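Lab notebook, bench 4. Continuing the backlog of folding jobs that were queued last week. Each job is logged with the same field layout so the records can be merged later without manual cleanup. Today's entry covers Serine/threonine protein kinase, a 29-residue chain. Filled in by technician R.K.

JOB TYPE: sequence-to-structure
TARGET: Serine/threonine protein kinase
LENGTH: 29
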Amino acid sequence: MTSLKRKDFRLQMLLGLGQTAQVYLAEAP
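JOB STATUS: finished
OUTPUT FIELD FOLLOWS
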C-alpha cells in the first residue's frame, strides 16, 4: 500500500466524519 500523506489522511478523516454525521442526522428522529 502507498503511504497516505498527512493532507490526504486529514481529507479522508473529514470525509469519514461527514458521512458519519449524515447517517446520524438521517437516522435521528
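OBSERVATION: The chain has one domain: 1-28.
SIGNED: R.K.
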